[in-house]
Amino acid sequence: MRYIPGFHTVLVRSRFRPQIVDLHEAIPSMDLFGSSGLSSSRLASTNGLITVTFLAALVSAIAFVSSRIISHPLKHIPGSTLATLSTWPLFWQSIRGKRANWIVQQHQKHGPVIRIAPHKVCISSDTGIKLIYGNKAVKTHVYDTFRYRGVKMCIGLPDVKSAHSRRKALLPAFSRQNLLEMEPVIRNHLQHFLDWLEKFEVTNTPVDTFKWFRYLTFDVITDIAFGQQIGMLQSGDSHFIGQVELRNQRNGLVRQYPTII
Question: pLDDT digit string (tens) for 217-261?
């Protein structure tokens, strides 16, 4: 016996000759395809379910947009529409390592106070800096990422008292006497920096000043803090800075999604 597609019949191979049998006539009580009434009922139920699902999704989308744009406490702060609705623009720029450049572009477009994510505001003004970084400001979970092997850095302490005691221990390093003792070290690296600038001037070579100022900064800091010279100005090697940039990209991801990294 073999079913013939497209027909309510089967081909029966008997001992004598093939016969075509109508299923509805042979088995009246058996309806393989369902009655028309049952099919209509199922179709109506399916259409109703699709309609209800669509309406529920539409209402959820409207409520979501309303909660981010219309009724949100930060609704009066300008910013791109996509950044207002989702953290993905900031997340994507962090992955690309273009977070700072993107924020600068948003400031140029929307002003000194902008919304870079649904619950994040960025301010580029003296008043805002004093307010945000004042002693009374409460630090968010973002500062939890400032740690190394489980030990939090001074800037990563959310508790004001703990951070104050840690900073107090660092203050003697910036006394006038210590700064005067650092001057020869700084002058030595600065002289290497000036030698490179003169060389570029003689050869009329374009200079990426940002890169070379970073070389100078890293050489001075590592020499003063660790008593060891990286020698970036001497070699012009940016391998160390490349590692730092990779770390910065990772920190950018951690700030957005601290639970997954």
Answer: 888 988 888 888 778 887 776 677 777 777 766 666 665 555 444
Cα separation, 115 vs 80, whole angstroms = 8
Interatomic CA distance for residues 142 and 144, integer angstroms: 5
Domain boundaries, the chain: 78-137, 146-173, 175-256
Rounded CA-CA distance 102/83 in Å is 11
Cβ contacts of 1 within 8 Å, gap of 6 or more: 10, 11, 12, 13
Question: Which burial class, exposed, middle or buried, applies to 47 when counting CB atoms under 10 A from its CB (0-12, 13-18, 19+)?
Answer: exposed
Q: Over the range 59-69, which residues count as b (16 or more CB within 10 Å of their CB) and which as e?
A: eeeeeeeeebe
Q: Which amino acid is at 117?
A: A
Q: What's the rounded Cα separation, in Å, for the pair 122 and 124?
A: 7
pTM of the model: 0.51
